[in-house]
Amino acid sequence: MSGFVEVEVGGRWTEVCAYRDLLPGRGTAVLVDGRQIALFRDRAGEVYAVGNRDPFSGAQVISRGLLGSRGPVPVVISPMYKQAFDARTGACLDEESAPALPVWRVRLTAPARRCAGDVAPPSGNAHRPETARP
Predict the structure, then answer these.
(1) CB neighbours of 88 closer than 8 A, spacing ≥ 6?
(2) What span, in angstroms and rounded, lies between the C-alpha atoms of 9 and 15?
């Protein structure tokens, strides 16, 4: 699949990265309207967006955690103290009274809207759209 990942923050959709840039099972941190958001893509292609701040340590490290599952529930494992958070709801599965991670809606957009502006650099590196937002 190709395309771009958008996250809804404050009622506004913001493009944050190319879908292909998300490695299955690994996290990526993005900054949207001053919020650090951890993005994860599972092996089935689903993308999740949760807060990057670990509620137990206060560190902005959730994106360095891993994506896995507990039964049918996709979970993000914190790299600090190894708590598991439901990637869909942000709820901590290890401690009921723990604060949940904030979650954001994610959508994938088709690459067709950018095809005319793509430029293949002679270096052979990845394409960079001419119309990219700063």
Answers:
(1) 48, 73, 74, 103
(2) 11
CB burial of residue 127 (10 Å; 0-12, 13-18, 19+): middle
| Amino acid letter, 3 | G
pLDDT of residue 96: 87
CA-nearest of 18, 38, 26 to 103 is: 38
| Assigned token pair, 115 | 């095809």
Confidence of residue 94 (pLDDT cuts 50, 70, 90): very high
**How far is it, in rounded angstroms, from Cα 98 to Cα 55?**
8
CA gap 26, 83 in Å, rounded: 16
Contact 85, 65 (CB under 8 A): no
Of 74-78, 108-112, 121-125, give the lowest mean pLDDT range: 121-125
Instruction: Report the distance separating Cα 57 and Cα 75, nearest Å.
Output: 18
The letter for the amino acid at 113 is: R
pLDDT exceeds 90 at position 2: no
Residue 27 has pLDDT above 70, yes or no: yes
Backbone CA torsion sign across 10, 16, 18, 22: negative
